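Priority: medium. Attachment 1 of 2:
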């Protein structure tokens, strides 16, 4: 049963959308970072898919410091890396303290700008057991006035990474993904990247019609869930 819980981060009230099977069993959990459209029908579809696979899911509303008068798709310009990290850390800590969550089995995952946040959080926060990144763009650029980008922090990742991207995408481009992969190789971070040559951005979203997009979505979901099953502690 989905519900919303509110916590305070940096003096601001942040909503966290929580969902999971209605039992008391300690299950693995996923901090899911939303795409530019926020907690929309697509993000809720992703949540349901993960819940059906046996995970508890938390989606933090990282736009809580921004005026509600600003449309969700325009809030990205106001994000700051330090604040997003604080939000992810608070969500991680919330899950870790729950008796129905396995504290050693918390994953960080995101789509689009949420994928960028996943790379950022993986490098800034220790304790995640895996990272899942779907077409996370802007990894080589900072948000706000911080000195480091998510790319700069890749060296700090201490868990396996799986990432998916489209060959026709511009952000991240295939070249961006090669640079990220090379940086992870340089620092010994175990990872697997999957490129779908015939699709662009957002192929996980059913709103993108077409056989190539549907095939990419189906294949990436299968690989994603197999990765989690394989990498999470038994």
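Attachment 2 of 2:
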């Amino acid at each position: 049963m989905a519900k919303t819980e509110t916590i305070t981060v940096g003096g601001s009230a942040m909503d966290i959308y929580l969902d999971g099977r209605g039992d008391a069993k300690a299950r693995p959990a996923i901090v899911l970072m939303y795409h530019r459209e926020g907690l929309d029908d697509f993000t809720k579809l992703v949540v349901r898919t993960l819940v059906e696979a046996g995970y508890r899911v938390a989606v933090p509303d990282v736009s809580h410091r921004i005026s509600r008068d600003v449309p969700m798709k325009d809030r990205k310009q106001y994000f700051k890396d330090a604040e997003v990290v604080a939000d992810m850390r608070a969500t991680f800590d919330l899950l870790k303290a729950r008796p129905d969550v396995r504290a050693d089995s918390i994953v960080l995952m995101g789509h689009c700008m949420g994928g960028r946040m996943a790379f950022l959080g993986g490098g800034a926060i220790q304790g995640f057991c895996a990272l899942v990144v779907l077409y996370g763009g802007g990894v080589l650029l900072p948000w706000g006035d911080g000195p480091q980008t998510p790319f700069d922090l890749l060296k700090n990742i201490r868990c396996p990474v799986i990432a998916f991207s489209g060959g026709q995408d511009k952000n991240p481009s295939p070249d961006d993904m090669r640079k990220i992969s090379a940086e992870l190789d340089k620092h010994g971070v175990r990872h697997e990247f999957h490129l779908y040559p015939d699709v662009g951005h957002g192929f996980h979203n059913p709103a993108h019609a077409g056989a190539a997009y549907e095939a990419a979505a189906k294949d990436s979901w299968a690989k994603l869930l197999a990765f989690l099953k394989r990498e999470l502690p038994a």
